[in-house]
Amino acid sequence: MLLDRASLLIYRLVLWLAFPLIWLYLLKRSRKQPEYRLHWTERLGYFNQKHIAYGLQSDTRPIWLHAVSVGEMRALHPIVLALRERYPQAPLLLTCMTPTGRATAHELYGEQSGINACIVFLPYDYPSAIRRFLHTFKPRLGVIIDTEIWPNCIAECHRQQIPLVLANARLSQKSLNGYLKVAPLMRVVLPQLAAVYAQSGQDAERLTQLGAQQVQVMGNVKFDSRLDPALIARGKDWKTALKRKILLLASSRDGEEALLLQHLGVLPAELLLIIVPRHPQRFDVVAELISARGLTLIRRSQWAGEAMSAQVLLGDSMGEMAAWFSAADVTIMGGSLLKFGSQNLIEAAACGSPILLGPSTFNFAQASSEAIAAGAAWQGDDAAAVGQQALQLLNDDVRREQMGQAGIVFSQAHRGATARLLDELALYLGERLD
User: Fold this and answer.
1) SS3 assignment, position 65
2) What local confidence, expressed as pLDDT, does residue 48 receive?
3) Domain with 179 in it: what CATH number?
4) 51-55, 215-219, 251-255: the lowest-pLDDT one
5) Same-domain pairing of 278 and 408
6) pLDDT exceeds 90 at position 434
7) Residue 156 falls in the annotated catalytic set
8) Which of 5, 247, 301, 358 is 20 to 30 A off residue 116, Cα-Cα?
9) Interatomic CA distance for residues 430 and 434, integer angstroms
């Protein structure tokens, strides 16, 4: 018990020792993303008063939702819509950790969206910064999406009696092994969460093993995301205009583009390869890689959706993934070809795109295995197998149709997590907020 308590003090000491390195890290990231130079005061818990007042009502404490970056911020969408429907007058406070996450939040939940949430960075996990954040906004409830464990934030919310829950929580075996190295710290902070709502039984078991209490299996809210009809129509229009078979590498990670191009070999004239990198700071790097291989390239930022003859289309835009999935005949999920654990395949399945996975899927282990079992996805042992399967599948219209329909059925069958989550959150919020 003494070791457990001491672990939090050690964590805080290490955090303070790392304080100068944080700003060096931000400066380094800002070389490729200048947005990392903005809003530094928020990362220490100091907020602009005009910004705070925007979208918040002084007589009602906000519901606070946290999502680290783009994927998690998009995963919040069904939760935010459900909260706005059940509690239409409640102010919403959204926090994130990255500039791209913040931009996504403004796109989905800012003033122009009609949701009109207040959007700021969550301060770094220093006790004084967290206290300033909580004192400024006074949230009535905090909801952290997926699995972010900030010990001081959890401890301070517990001390101030602000319910803080972990929602849509997932924990791979790899992540569990990492967290077990600081098990004493986890045993201190995780029991201070008001509740943990896990995606699957396996996630719940691992979180419990780590020290979490009040763990319930809730399902994955990402299945409840509503597809934007305008994006679906845009993708179908692209498909009609291009008049070619389309292979999509979606949300690719560093090294995967070169690996796939190597194993695809010479691209057939009737094939268009679309590559959409996961991180926007890699757009230029990937463009240079494609050109260096002697392939003709056009970027989304230079293309208006008309017919064209380029061999590769680089998706250097944000917020159009549903359109890419709708245009594709076959989708290869990025993050799965190398040891990144895969990106989320649920939206691709919902759009009816046949999905190919590489060997690394630990971030979405259950969703991947269930999609494979449903016939919506196929998994290869390496990038070579995935590339070969892609070329075969592009020539098999019947099998592509079967996999696409299986994906739609698969995605629809797993909906409902958001409604279950809202019923649980009502325990802290009540049925209405005055």
Assistant:
1) strand
2) 87
3) 3.40.50.11720
4) 51-55
5) yes
6) no
7) no
8) 301
9) 10
